[in-house]
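Lab notebook, bench 4. The sequencing result for the construct came back, and we need a structural model before the next group meeting so we can plan mutations. Quick request posted to the team channel:

Model the 3D structure of this chain.
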Amino acid sequence: MSGHLELTVTFSELPTPVQVQAGLKIGIQTDRALVVAVLPPKAWKKLAQAADAWPHWVAALSGRLGAQAGAAAGPVIVLEQPALQVFEKKAKPAADAT
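Done. Here's the predicted structure in token form:
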């Protein structure tokens, strides 16, 4: 049986992008590793617009597990073929204290 390994990282702060030939490279530090992905300009624009328009948001970045390397600061994982979804976080209604 064959399959592929996919990884999803959620974050709610806008990462600092680095312009590369294929798009914008971002890194998200998790508690275990630095996850790196190259987003197409259209996906980055969607993320930046959400961060500007919504006071509270969360993004889910998923993709196939790519190259992994060790670095002085810890492991680095590359996401191949990343897909991005951005959601507005709505405030939950306060519970009735009766």
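The mean pLDDT is 89.
Will bring this to the meeting.
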